[in-house]
């Protein structure tokens, strides 16, 4: 399945620097002034997963194909973005196409880096962005409410569906008028489905990337009052926080692999931004990974947590789901210990699963189908 995230934030919070580092793409400008990114930049990054290398060695695979995430860097938003200030409207439409939002928040002091509001305050910065996204959503919701109130539904079933949708929309509208993100409302699944066609910005899962200095990266933000305030905010709305240093990320891009490892060891950091951000995105979107492996290739596939075997097969090809028969399945740990399907079968660790099987994180699968 295709996964797309958008990086948003105020100007000069390190957003484009982080984007460049994550995608190893120097195309996006990172000048120290607002609106330096005047077109959305898109990068494709592989999802880091050490299990792929292990599986490929066992299977003697010719190729390794990881899962991928598309990242869109969107120009810095400011107050009035929902009304077109700072090129805002143009870029808000790009966020609507994303599955999740990575909101970069400045959590460091530096007199040489201008803050668009003249001071560092992560909670207020987040409120500024959320308010603009909420206003943009409010316009969407109000248009839909107006259409529903015209009462074009004919059948009793349609009328009941429209009444249910209207009730949810009016509740959402009150929240948005106060600048409160839809995700804070904790809507049930049926209510969320009713809103799905609107593709609301503030309904999307959010991961706050707390951009810190080198010393705070080493301590994972401990003792940084900006990070602590951001964590409190994220917890209140069910969002995630990842501690990153755009400056360190950009330096690592210029280094060879061995040099990177030595630098991180000296810094006292085990991993940097990308793995943590991807894990957070997967967790917020309730996603998991399963694998296929053989001599030709070892490949990671992304599916929703709770997906059945046919649904997981459909990620590879719709024919696999339509004609699903069975799935040969071994857990990652059992596959590694057994060094492949053959010994796993001998040990009784190999399973033949049917249509009702719920796929687990790390499953190794071979699908049987007939169309």
From TrEMBL:
SUPFAM superfamilies: P-loop containing nucleoside triphosphate hydrolases, TGS-like. Residues 286-369 form the TGS domain. The keyword Metal-binding applies. The keyword ATP-binding applies. It holds the Pfam family MMR_HSR1. Residues 3-264 form the OBG-type G domain. It comes from the Eukaryota. Its cofactor is Mg(2+). It is found in: Cytoplasm. One of its GO terms (molecular function) is metal ion binding. Monomer. HAMAP family: YchF_OLA1_ATPase (MF_00944). PANTHER family: OBG GTPASE FAMILY (PTHR23305), OBG-TYPE G DOMAIN-CONTAINING PROTEIN (PTHR23305:SF18). Hydrolyzes ATP, and can also hydrolyze GTP with lower efficiency. Has lower affinity for GTP. Belongs to the TRAFAC class OBG-HflX-like GTPase superfamily. OBG GTPase family. YchF/OLA1 subfamily. This is Obg-like ATPase 1. It comes from Bathycoccus prasinos.
């Amino acid at each position: 399945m295709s996964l797309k995230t958008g990086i948003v934030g105020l100007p000069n919070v390190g957003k484009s620097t982080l984007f460049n580092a994550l995608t190893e793409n120097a195309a996006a400008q990172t000048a120290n002034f607002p609106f330096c990114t005047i077109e959305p930049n898109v990068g494709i990054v592989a999802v880091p997963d050490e299990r792929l290398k292990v599986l490929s060695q066992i299977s003697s695979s010719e190729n390794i194909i990881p899962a991928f995430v598309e990242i869109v860097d969107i120009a810095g938003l400011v107050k009035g973005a929902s009304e077109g200030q700072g090129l805002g409207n143009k870029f808000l439409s790009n966020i609507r196409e994303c599955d999740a939002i990575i909101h970069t928040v400045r959590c460091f002091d530096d007199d040489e880096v201008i803050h668009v509001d003249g001071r560092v305050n992560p909670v207020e910065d987040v409120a500024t962005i959320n308010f603009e996204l909420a206003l943009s959503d409010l316009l969407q919701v109000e248009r839909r409410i107006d259409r529903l109130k015209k009462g074009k539904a004919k059948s009793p079933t349609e009328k009941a569906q429209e009444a249910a949708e209207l009730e949810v929309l009016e509740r959402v509208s009150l929240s948005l008028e106060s600048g409160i993100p839809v995700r804070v409302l904790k809507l049930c699944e049926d209510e969320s489905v009713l809103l799905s066609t609107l593709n609301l910005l503030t309904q999307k899962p959010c991961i706050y990337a707390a951009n810190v200095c080198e010393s705070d990266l080493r301590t994972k933000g401990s003792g940084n009052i900006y990070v602590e305030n951001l964590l409190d905010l994220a917890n209140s709305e069910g969002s995630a926080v990842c501690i990153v240093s755009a400056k360190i990320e950009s330096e690592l891009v210029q280094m060879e692999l061995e040099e990177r490892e030595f630098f991180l060891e000296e810094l006292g950091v085990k991993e940097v931004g990308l793995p943590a951000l991807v894990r957070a995105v997967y967790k917020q979107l309730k996603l998991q990974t399963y694998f296929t492996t053989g001599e030709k290739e070892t490949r990671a596939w992304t599916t929703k947590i709770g997906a059945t075997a046919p649904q997981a097969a459909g990620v590879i090809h719709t024919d696999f789901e339509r004609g699903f028969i069975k799935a040969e399945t071994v857990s990652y740990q059992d596959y590694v210990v057994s060094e492949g399907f053959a010994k796993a079968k001998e040990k009784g660790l190999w399973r033949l699963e049917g249509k009702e099987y719920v796929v687990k994180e790390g499953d190794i699968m071979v699908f049987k189908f007939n169309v």
